[in-house]
Structures are given as C-alpha cells and as structure tokens.
C-alpha cells in the first residue's frame, strides 16, 4: 500500500501526460484521486474562462450606461417611432418596457384578459458611453455651453420626434442617466402612479409657447415741447427727460397691459398655462424688443392652428407689442406632478 | 381646423413637419429649448448624482444667462466656471479655507444663494423702467392718471 500511496502523490503533482501511465498501474483508490484532480483542473480552467467572460461584462458595464429620454405608454406605435431615432451620443434609441409582464399590451392575450389592468409603461432609452456621462464628465459638460447645446438639442430631438407622431410622452429632464436598464425599470416602476395620470392629462395635447415683446417701434416720437414757454434751459431739459421717462414707462406699461389681455385670451383657448421667466439674453437670439411675458400653454392638438391664429390675430390689433407663438412642443411644462414626490 | 396639424384621432399618420421645422429642428431658439429640458420635464433621480443639485444650480445659472446679455458675454463659453457665486470650484480656488470646508459651506449656503440669485434675476427681469418708476412715485401717479384719461382700452 505504501507504493500505491506514493503513486497517488505523483498523480497529484505531475501533469496529465504522466498521470495516464500511472493510472494504468494504480489501484482503484488512486484512480479516484486522479479523477478528483482532473475535475479540479477543469474547474480552474472554467473559472479562468469565467473571469474572461466577467471581464467582458465589466467592460460593457463600463462603456455603456443608460440615458432615459421620456416615459410613455407601451404601444406598437411607440416602438415603431423610436426605431430610427438617434440620441445624445448618436446611439440607437429603444423602448425599455416595464410595468407588467404581458408580452404586448395591444395584441397579446385573449380579449377578455384583465380589462382593468392599467396600461403598461415604457421608457425611451439609449446606451451612452459611461465615460461621457459619469459624474465628472457631466459636471464638465454642463459647464460647457457647446456641449450643453448639442446635448439639449439631441435630447429634445428625440422627444420631439415622438410628439411629432402624435405619441403622448412625459419628457424627462436633461441627463437623466442610469447605471443599467434594471435601474431604469425599478425607478420608473416606483413612480408609475405619478406617470399614469400625467400621461392621461397630456394625451391629445401639445405645448405652445407665447412670448410677448414690447415693440419699440410703436414709441411715439418725443413731441417737441413748446419752446420758450418761460422754461429755462435746465428746466426744459428736465421736463424733456421726464417726458421720455414717462413715455418709456408708458410703452412698457402698455405692453404689459396688452400682454395681460392676450394671456387672458390664450388662457381661454388652452387647458393650462405655466409662466416662464421673460428672456433677456443672447441665448434668446434676435428679439424685437424687451420680453414682457413668456408662457407655455397646454393646448388640445387639434386646436393648435386655431390657437396660433387667434392669438396672433388679437396681437395684431393691439399696439405696442410683438407676439411670437412657438411650438408645438412636447408637454415639458406640464409633465410635473402637482406636488413633487420627495 | 385650418390645417391638418394634429391629424385624425384614429392613429392615421401625423404630419411631422411642424415639429421638424419648428422647435424640433436645429433652428429652434436655444433659450426655449434649455428652459424646457433643464427647467421643466419630469424630474426623477438618476444614478448619476448630477441630476439633483447640479442641475438645479445650472438652471438658476441658465436663468441668469437668459436674463442678461452682459453676463452672458462676459462669461463666454465656460460661463459656469467664472461665476464664484455658483461654482464651488471657482470659490475654492480663491480662498484659503480647505476645499472640504468650502464645499460644506457652499452647500450650506446654497438655499440662500439661490434665493439671492433668483431675487436678482427677478429684479433684472423687471426692466430698468421699474427702477425709474421707484425713483419717482409722483411721476408714476401722474402717468397713471394720464393713461386712464388718454387711452381707454380698445379691447
């Protein structure tokens, strides 16, 4: 038996080329040992293969994270609409489904199947390079107006393409980014009860912007004061100055009043209204005058032209203002819960 | 009613043109887009923390840049970086306190800063005319009287 034990030791230590010969001479105990050894070796190889696989997976996780653009109802139209879209990183856009396990809410299942089940939701997502959308990169990117513009326009283009096909969406805020698709599902599932009523509210509606400017060209030319009416030069100057102040303020006030009337009219044509801050800067581009008001209206989509025509027509009859109607937009301004969930 | 913008309800193909040529196109006013994608839209917490605090600050910053030509010009491209009131990086480089302390302090101060900035923005947005008006209450009353006499609303 001593000899056999030694043979067993040899089996364990040498590689298989030699082992085979030893095996032939060894008794059944030794054979068992060899089998165990062989099994172990195979396990090690498997593990190494697994490591390679895992490295690949890690690589994937590192290179791609998930950018979410919008939440919508899961429909075949929605799936078709996203098929050709490209996102903020030029990536292919897809529909990430969540909400329930039904294969397809529209076509699957017998007719009588759970009619009271709430509609399934989906998220519009795209894989983006983690290196460009991790915390540090985003911080840097958001500080770069060029990056911000490109990203904002690309984000907006995805959302607008869906709205353009009449699909109701809740647009998400810029750079809403997740580690993976499961995280998107979890997070959106948790907010499902917020999203469904909001989606119902914006369905069949679009957002229109109405910007009202005080138009400088309506300022009446400063009427020359009657000269030599007993006013000295200084007094005449002061009087002129006061008049100019007065006419400027008057023009502003007139524009504000007119804006109020237009807002009232627009309000009657819309379902809801949200006020933005007036725009002043160069980002706003060429403007006809100071921006008096800047509002967003939620308008039924079959009243868009009616809204536009009537607001512009009303503005034409009112002096001192220039009115711009923008849109239709996705309902960005009407996609927030009344009370944000903390 | 006048044009088939919205299409029919039955799911027939809609005309994408209003979106393609309008705000969806490249020609859309950047301020209009930014105030929507940054300031509006559904806020949900992403995994990347930038969403919460930094977007909020960025939004305030955006309001400023949209509110003032001068500020936008003087800030240029790296507009965020150059404003010590909003960039913790900028402020920490100009002070002697440890960075961590700076961060804490800046985080703690943010609510105040924010209201300050918004107040400034609001004042700015209110037009210089208003400060003139505040200068002279009597004049304003006079104007109001003139206006009501002069220009009965034509509505």
Automatic annotation (TrEMBL), chain A:
The keyword Secreted does not apply. It is found in: Gas vesicle. Coiled coil: none annotated. The keyword Transport does not apply. Pfam families: GvpL_GvpF. Residues 99-118 are annotated as: Disordered. Belongs to the gas vesicle GvpF/GvpL family. This is GvpL/GvpF family gas vesicle protein. It comes from Streptomyces vastus.
TrEMBL record, chain B:
Coiled coil: none annotated. InterPro entries: Gas-vesicle_GvpA-like, GvpA, GvpA-like_CS. Keywords: Gas vesicle. Belongs to the gas vesicle GvpA family. This is Gas vesicle structural protein. It comes from the Bacteria. It comes from Streptomyces vastus. Residues 98-117 have a biased composition (Basic and acidic residues). The keyword DNA repair does not apply. Transmembrane segments: none annotated. It is found in: Gas vesicle. Residues 1-24, 80-131 are annotated as: Disordered. Residues 85-95 have a biased composition (Polar residues).
């Amino acid at each position: 038996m001593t000899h056999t034990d030694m043979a067993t030791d040899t089996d364990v230590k040498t590689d298989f080329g030699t082992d085979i010969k030893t095996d032939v001479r060894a008794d059944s105990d030794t054979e068992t040992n060899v089998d165990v050894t062989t099994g172990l070796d195979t396990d090690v190889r498997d593990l190494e293969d697994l490591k390679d696989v895992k490295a690949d997976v890690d690589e994937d996780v590192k290179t791609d994270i998930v950018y979410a653009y919008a939440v919508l109802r899961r429909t075949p139209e929605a799936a078709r609409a996203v098929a050709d879209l490209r996102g903020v990183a030029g990536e292919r856009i897809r529909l990430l489904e969540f909400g329930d396990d039904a294969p397809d809410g529209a076509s699957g299942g017998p007719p009588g199947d759970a009619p009271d089940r709430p509609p399934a939701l989906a998220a519009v997502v795209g894989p983006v390079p983690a290196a460009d959308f991790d915390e540090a990169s985003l911080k840097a990117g958001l500080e770069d107006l060029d990056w911000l513009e490109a990203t904002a326009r690309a984000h907006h283009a995805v959302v607008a393409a869906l709205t353009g096909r009449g699909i109701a969406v809740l647009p998400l805020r810029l750079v809403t980014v997740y580690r993976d698709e499961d995280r998107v599902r979890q997070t959106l599932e948790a907010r499902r009860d917020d999203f469904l009523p909001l989606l119902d509210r914006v369905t069949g509606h679009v957002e229109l912007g109405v910007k009202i400017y005080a138009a400088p060209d309506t300022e009446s030319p400063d009427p020359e004061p009657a000269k030599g009416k007993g006013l000295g030069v200084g007094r005449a100057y002061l009087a002129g100055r006061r008049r100019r102040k007065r006419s400027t303020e008057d023009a502003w006030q007139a524009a504000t009043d007119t804006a109020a009337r237009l807002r009232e009219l627009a309000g009657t044509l819309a379902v809801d209204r949200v006020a933005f801050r007036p725009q002043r800067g160069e980002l706003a581009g060429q403007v006809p005058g100071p921006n008096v008001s800047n509002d967003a209206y939620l308008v039924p989509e079959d009243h868009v032209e009616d809204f536009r025509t009537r607001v512009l027509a009303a503005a034409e009859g009112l002096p001192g203002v220039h009115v711009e109607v923008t849109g239709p937009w996705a309902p960005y301004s009407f996609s927030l819960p009344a009370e944000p969930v903390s | 009613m006048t044009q088939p913008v919205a299409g029919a309800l039955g799911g027939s193909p809609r005309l994408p043109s209003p979106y393609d040529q309008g705000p969806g196109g490249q020609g859309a006013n950047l301020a209009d887009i930014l105030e929507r994608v940054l300031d509006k839209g559904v806020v949900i917490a992403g995994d990347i923390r930038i969403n919460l605090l930094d977007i909020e600050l960025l939004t305030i910053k955006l309001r400023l840049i949209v509110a003032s030509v001068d500020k936008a010009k003087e800030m240029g491209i790296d507009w965020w970086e150059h404003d010590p009131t909003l960039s913790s990086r900028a402020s920490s480089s100009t002070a002697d306190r440890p960075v961590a302390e700076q961060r804490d302090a800046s985080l703690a101060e943010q609510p105040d800063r924010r209201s300050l900035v918004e107040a400034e923005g609001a004042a700015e947005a209110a037009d210089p005319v208003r400060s003139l008006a505040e200068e002279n209450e009597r004049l304003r009353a006079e104007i109001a009287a003139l206006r009501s006499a002069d220009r009965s609303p034509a509505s």
